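Methods — Computational structure assignment.
A single polypeptide chain was analysed. Its primary sequence is given first, followed by the predicted tertiary structure written as C-alpha cells.
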Amino acid sequence: MIFSRRTILVFATLLPLALAGGASSQVKLETLTIVTAGGRQAFQVEVMENDEQRARGLMFRREMAADRGMLFDFKKVQPVAFWMKNTYIPLDMIFIDERGEIVNIAENTEPLSERSVPSGRPVLGVLEVNAGISRKYGIKPGDRVEHRIFRK
C-alpha cells in the first residue's frame, strides 16, 4: 500500500490523540473539591477507574486546563507509584487515602521521566493536576478531598 505524504502526516498527528483517548472520545468530567485551611478549590476531573484507563492516564497530552485534573481510582487501598513516561505535562501528584485525606504530594514531577514517584503510604486515589497548583492553592497533606470515591 502506498501512502501520500499528507496521509502519513495526518496519521502521525492523529495517532497520539487516539492512543491518549483524545479527539474522538467523549471525556466525562466530574467535580472534585479540595478543602484547605484557606478555603475550597473545585476541579473538573476525568476519573480513571480501570486498568486500561489508569495505564494511559495523561500520556501524550500536551496541555491541561488550569481547573482540570485526572483522578485515578484504584478501587482498593494500596501503595502505588507513578512515572511520567510519555507524559509531556509537568504535574503535581496528590495521593489520597480512602477517607479523602491527602497523605502526600509530589510537586512538579518531571515530564517524560521514568523515575518512580511513590505514594509513600497506601492510598485509594491519586489526583494529577498541573504543576504548581498545590503551591498556588496551599494544598498540603492533611487537607480533605471531596469526591464520590472517598468515604465521608
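Note: The radius of gyration is 17 Å.
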